[in-house]
Design goal:
Hypothetical protein af1432, Rossmann fold, alpha/beta, 5-stranded parallel β-sheet, disordered C terminus
């Protein structure tokens, strides 16, 4: 039989977009039966226990999970709880499978966070219909969430830029520091630092919050903010209030929109990005790990960008000189682990800096 190029292109497009369905059931016959029903329509992953399902998910994230309730050792509810607790897996739609026709079991299942409830034995037509429905709904929900997130991020950056625009010398400071924060966070994860505080979800929230670090400058007088010379003590004390002003403003925003969890990190960053590891920073003079991790990361990104970009009161430093300054601040101004991450990803930070308008000096990294 001969196939046209059009036929082959359709075939390969179907192969490429086949979704992965993870079926979890301690009964091997049930697993084989569902695998047979889904064969040719979906890529099927099989697990005989909740523990095995979680292991499979760590290697390959499925598009949907069919999860039996009645299993030994770890039942469906316990397995679901572990899935929902994982920031990456929690977005996967889960459908419970059970031979229990009791209405209270069905109610408990739906209240636990699953998207649907199917009783066994499973009829193929119903199963395929339910899978397609929930896969399509999940895709739509994820696209909607991503669109809303993009809109929110755009508004956040625009708001931060509105504050920063008063000082024309800051240039692309907001966007550059956001990139630096993201690079530092990713490097810290690669190094296995702060495993209890830093994961992909937290990195996303911290990166989203970074543009708001100086939002408190909206409450600082132009005479202080735009002064071309050195600030006197009174003026510097006024400048330092941008940390607490920003935190107060963001705290009010968070109270009005408690689902926007990145604002919690924005509060920490605005308030703490001028604290120093040795306790000599402001506004509170806290030290070491008492300073929120997000603030300690932002501190490095903020100072590095301040050094490598022209400011109203001075010209940009040479990249090598800026690098040396940051490294010399290890364990004094900056968290030593964050500085180790800065050293490891400095090439990427330098590349990001060179792509911006902040400076164009050509220098290699150390």
């Amino acid at each position: 039989m001969h196939y046209s190029l059009y036929d082959l292109s359709i075939f390969w497009s179907i192969v490429v977009i086949m979704e992965y369905i993870l079926v979890v059931d301690d009964n091997l016959a049930n697993l084989k039966n569902i695998q047979l029903q889904l064969s040719g329509v979906y890529q099927v992953l099989l697990a005989k226990s909740g523990a095995q399902a979680l292991q499979i998910c760590s290697q390959r994230i499925p598009d949907l999970i069919l999860l039996d309730i009645d299993m030994p050792e770890m039942d469906g509810f316990e397995t679901l709880e572990k899935i929902m607790a994982n920031t990456i897996l929690s977005r996967i739609p889960v459908i419970f499978l059970t031979a229990d026709h009791d209405k209270s079991t069905e109610a408990r299942a739906l209240e636990s966070g699953v998207v649907d409830f199917i009783t066994k034995p499973v009829e193929k037509t119903i199963l395929l219909h339910r899978l397609r429905l929930h896969l399509d709904l999940a895709e739509y929900r994820h696209k909607l969430e991503d669109t809303v997130k993009e809109l929110e991020d755009s508004l956040v950056v625009s708001f931060a830029e509105f504050v920063e625009i008063r000082d024309k010398n800051t240039g692309d400071h907001i966007l550059r520091t956001q990139i630096y924060v993201s690079l530092l966070c990713q490097e810290l994860i690669r190094k296995g630092c702060f495993p209890g505080e830093l994961n992909e979800k937290e990195v996303s929230l911290i990166t989203r919050a970074a543009p708001l670090h100086d939002v408190g400058k909206i409450g600082v007088s132009d005479m202080v903010l735009l002064k071309p010379g050195r600030l006197d003590d009174n003026e510097f004390n006024l400048m330092k209030t941008h940390t607490t002003i920003g935190a107060r403003l963001l705290r009010d925003m968070y109270e009005r929109t408690p689902t926007q969890h990145y604002l919690n990190y924005a509060i920490q960053i605005a308030e703490g990005h001028h604290e120093k590891y040795d306790g000599t920073g402001y506004p509170y003079g806290i030290k070491g790990e008492a300073i929120p991790l997000s603030s300690r990361i932002m501190a490095v990104a903020d100072v590095y960008d301040a050094l490598t970009a022209d400011r109203i009161y001075r010209k940009a430093m040479d990249p090598q000189e800026s690098f040396n300054y940051i490294m010399a601040g290890k364990s004094v101004h900056f968290d030593p682990l964050v500085i180790d991450a800065f050293f490891a990803c400095h090439d990427d930070i330098l590349t990001a800096a060179k792509r911006s308008t902040g400076y164009s000096a050509a220098a290699g990294s150390s």
